[in-house]
Write a structure and sequence with these properties.
By secondary structure, the protein is mainly α. 76% of the residues lie in helices and 0% in strands.
């Protein structure tokens, strides 16, 4: 009887822990929306998306570099990764995944001021869902190529239709930029490929924060070179940093905190559960941001709300490839 009571208590504790992790997963999704809003506002005030992206990525790199100084685990992960490269267990090109992250933030900072956080999130998630088909078919995540089911193809098409529904009332209006909408979808596809490459890096580093350090370093380097080339060729110029508000500089901090959240939560909840709660938090958070702190000219309509609901349903229907290995859960 005593053993039975103990088992019952353990089950109850596990359920309570999972419920709290579910909430944290949803909060991590909200953080993605907050990061998009902060980076977008910084870009709007600077009128320079690449410079805004560099500030966001560079501040994140500074934070995680300081953490690395006091973390032997991150340094051990770097040694593991260096050894894997020397043994040719991982292609050198994979290490440049952070450049894709830099591209994602550069697009994010440019697009959010034009279409708002909610519509950006819908289009970005649609891009991620569509890109996941190609990523799995090519076997980029490791573990070989994966079969693409009609269910996942249908889910990807469903999310694309959701984007169309979201802007249905503004198709003939000058208030919507189809170009910005397309770029948001590209940003989602880019981050989908980046996550797959990070999965490979994580397999060899055995330390998610080492993978993050590499990403921030590569992304910051890419954005620095891009901004330098734009300045040299005269297509843009550096702008003095605005005095505030303070929250426009939180993009990099949010990125590092998000990594700290996800690196642990995913291991306990699994990819599918985490993704569903995270995407839900992202979409709801994006909608609330556009309701209470919208970018200039952005309005929330019934069509946008319908598109958000459809996007989440598409993610649920498509789910995440359940045949992913345990190792990929740490990406």
């Amino acid at each position: 009887m005593v053993i039975g009571h103990r088992k019952a208590r353990i089950v109850i504790v596990k359920r309570l822990v999972n419920q709290r992790l579910d909430i944290l997963a949803a909060i991590s999704g909200v953080m993605i929306a907050l990061q998009a809003r902060a980076n977008g506002e910084l870009s709007y005030r600077l009128d320079n998306g690449v410079q805004a992206a560099l500030i966001s990525f560079g501040s994140g790199l500074l934070i995680i570099a300081i953490v690395t100084i006091f973390s032997s685990a991150i340094r051990e992960g770097a040694r593991n990764l260096r050894g894997a490269v020397k043994r040719r267990e991982i292609p050198r090109l994979t290490l440049f995944a952070g450049a894709l992250g830099g591209s994602f933030v550069a697009i994010q900072t440019h697009v959010v001021p034009l279409i708002g956080v909610a519509l950006y999130s819908v289009a970005s998630i649609a891009g991620q869902t569509a890109a996941s088909l190609g990523v799995d078919r090519l076997g980029i995540t490791g573990g070989g190529k994966k079969i693409i089911t009609w269910r996942r193809v249908g889910a990807a098409l469903f999310t694309v239709v959701a984007v169309f529904i979201s802007v249905f009332d503004r198709i003939d209006s000058s208030s919507i930029s189809i170009y910005a909408l397309f770029l948001a979808g590209v940003a989602g596809a880019v981050v989908g490929v980046q996550r797959a490459l990070n999965g490979q890096i994580n397999e060899h580093s055995h330390q998610s924060f080492t993978t993050s350090l590499l990403n921030f370093a590569m992304g910051t380097t890419f954005l620095s070179l891009l901004l330098l080339s734009l300045v040299i060729f005269g297509s843009t110029e550096l702008v003095a940093l605005p005095a505030g508000p303070w929250w426009i500089y939180t993009g990099g901090v949010i990125g590092v905190i998000y990594i700290a959240f996800t690196s642990k939560i995913v291991q306990h909840l699994g990819v599918l559960t985490f993704t569903l709660f995270s995407v839900g938090g992202n979409l709801v958070g994006s909608l609330l941001i556009d309701l209470y702190s919208p970018t200039e000219g952005v309005q929330v309509s019934a069509y946008l709300v319908t598109g958000i609901v459809m996007t989440y349903l598409g993610v649920i229907v498509g789910g995440v490839n359940n045949s992913q290995s345990r190792r990929s859960l740490k990406q």
